[in-house]
């Protein structure tokens, strides 16, 4: 019964996201931590993930959850509801909301530094967790790194994306295997700070890193003027 209700809710959220695509406004996502604040936008070409994240954030779901898994040079992960009251050292990463979000891969979306992407288990459809996400830190790649990345991802990396990986950095071996659905447009340096914190077993930070997440509807022109982001996906 719970799964059926979640699927109906997800369907309604998708319809809302499709309608949002033609709007002159969009949502600004603010992720606040003691190490700084990140501002992000979510992509229209991944409507299921966008609508799902907005719906959860709007209810305060993410407030108090931890960045429970950090790997310097790779990513920071959070959104596990079990992390809100987790004891020190308790293994995290298995909490969920009772449903998955179907994969939404897009050729223009890739794992450059700063993107938001959905965590998932090893299900064959590559469907995403209904709540857990990660933010890419990655590394700057050299020409010789791409052969390994392409072999792991099973795709040929386009020239323009290669250039981003060689200058901004990222994790190309995850491309088309995990859904990318947004990006940090200000506060990217916060990712580096969080990723560099001391960590213990299962890559959990030794000191808890809770987040506060809010979404605010704002004119796209205002977002572009304030943060320099151009809405093209």
TrEMBL record:
EC main group = isomerase
- What Pfam families does the record tag this protein with? Pro_isomerase
**One of the protein's GO biological processes:** protein folding
EC code(s) of this entry = 5.2.1.8
- Carries keyword Flavoprotein? no
Please write the reaction equations for the catalytic activity of this protein. [protein]-peptidylproline (omega=180) = [protein]-peptidylproline (omega=0)
Q: Which residues does the UniProt record annotate as the domain PPIase cyclophilin-type?
A: 44-209
Q: Where would one find the signal peptide in this protein? A: 1-19
Q: Which residues cross the membrane?
A: none
Any GO molecular function: peptidyl-prolyl cis-trans isomerase activity
Q: Is Signal one of the keywords UniProt gives this record?
A: yes
Q: Which PROSITE patterns match?
A: CSA_PPIASE_1 (PS00170), CSA_PPIASE_2 (PS50072)
Q: Which UniProt keywords apply?
A: Isomerase, Rotamase, Signal
| Function statement | PPIases accelerate the folding of proteins. It catalyzes the cis-trans isomerization of proline imidic peptide bonds in oligopeptides.
Family statement: Belongs to the cyclophilin-type PPIase family.
Q: Under which name does UniProt file this protein?
A: Peptidyl-prolyl cis-trans isomerase
Organism, as annotated: uncultured Cytophagales bacterium
